[in-house]
C-alpha cells in the first residue's frame, strides 16, 4: 500500500468512525452564522425551512393521542434498568469500553438535531420586529397602571369561570378538550401576525404530569418530536396559558419572555373564559412580581385591589408548588437556567419575567401613550 492509499484509508476510517464529530462542527458553524446575522436566520430558516418541517411532522405527531416524548422517556426508564439487570446476571454482555465513544457520538447527533430542528430560532429577530411594539425602560407608575388594569380584568373574568368545591378555579372541560381549544385559539393569531402561521398542532397533556411538577415545570417543547407537552396536574388556571406558551415555541419563538407574551395574546383572542382568565393571570403574576421588586409601596397599594377569588387562586398555586420544593426542583432549575443561558438568554430563568417589558409596550400602544 503506497503512502497516498494509506492516507485515504485513514481518512476513510476516521469518517466512518467519527462522522458525528463533523455534525457537531457543522452545528457550531450554523450557530456562529446565526448569531452574526439574525436576518439570514429569519429568511431562510425561521420562515423558510423550519415552518415547513414543523407543520408536516408536528401535524402528524398531533394525530397520536399521547405524547411521543413521554412514551420514549418512559420506555427508557424501563429499558435501561432492565438491560443493567440482565448484564448483572450475565444474560447479555455490554461492551463497556465502547460506551464512552458511543456516548460522544450520540451527543454530537443530538446536538446537530437540536440545532436543525429548533435551535437556530433562538437567534431570529425579536418579536417586537413583527409586532411593532416599542420596548423601553418604564416607570414604576406605568407598571402600577398596567397591574391595576390586569387586576380589574382578572377580577371580572374570575366571575365567568367554574369553581371546585373549595372555591378554586377549575377548567370547564377536560385537558384534551382544553388542548383543542388552545390550538384553535392560537390559530387566530395568524390573522394579525404572519410569523405565527396557523398549524394543526395540538398540545399534549402528559399522563405522568407529576414528574414535571417535581421539576417545577408547567410545560416543555420537545423539538425532537415536535410536541408542546403540558403539565396538567398543576393548578387549572395556569394550564390554558401554558398550552399557548408551548404552542408559541412550535412557531419558532423560543425566547421565554416572547413565548409568554405570545401565549397571553392567544388567550386574549380566545372565546373561552378559561383561556382569557388564564392569560390575564399569567400577565398579572409577572407584572406584580416586577412591581414588588421595583416599588414595594406601590405594589402593596395595587395588591389590595385583588378580589378574594383571584387571591385564592394565587394562594392555591403557591401552596401547590411549595409541595414540590426540594433537591429535584433545584437541579431542574439549575439545568433550565444553564440551558437558557447557552441559548442566547443570558439572564437564564429570569428571562420569563421580561414578558413585562412587552406587556408595558402593548399597554402604551393600546392607550396611545407616548413611547
Structure description:
This protein has helices at 3-36, 38-62, 68-88, 99-117, 128-131, 140-157, 175-187, 210-214, 239-250, 256-268, 273-294, 296-303, 308-322, 327-342, 355-366, and strands at 162-163, 169-170, 204-205, 219-222, 227-230. The chain is mainly alpha-helical. Strands 3-5-4 form a 3-stranded mixed β-sheet. The protein has a two-stranded antiparallel sheet with strand order 1-2. β4 and β5 form a beta hairpin. α1 (3-36) packs across α4 and α10 crosses α15. The longest helix is centred in the first third of the chain and has 34 residues, at 3-36. The radius of gyration is 23 Å and the shape is globular.
Features:
single chain; about 375 residues; mainly alpha; three-stranded mixed β-sheet; two-stranded antiparallel ribbon; about 5% strand
What is the string of helix and strand elements?
Answer: HHHHHHEEHEHEEHHHHHHH
**Number of separate helices:** 15
- Based on CA atoms alone, the radius of gyration comes out at 23 Å
Shape: globular
What fraction of the residues are assigned to beta strands by DSSP? under 5%
Write the layout of secondary structure elements.
Blueprint: H1 3-36, H2 38-62, H3 68-88, H4 99-117, H5 128-131, H6 140-157, E1 162-163, E2 169-170, H7 175-187, E3 204-205, H8 210-214, E4 219-222, E5 227-230, H9 239-250, H10 256-268, H11 273-294, H12 296-303, H13 308-322, H14 327-342, H15 355-366
Parallel strand pairs: 3-5
Antiparallel strand pairs: 1-2, 4-5
Helix pairs in contact: 1-4, 6-11, 6-12, 7-9, 7-10, 9-10, 10-11, 10-15, 11-12
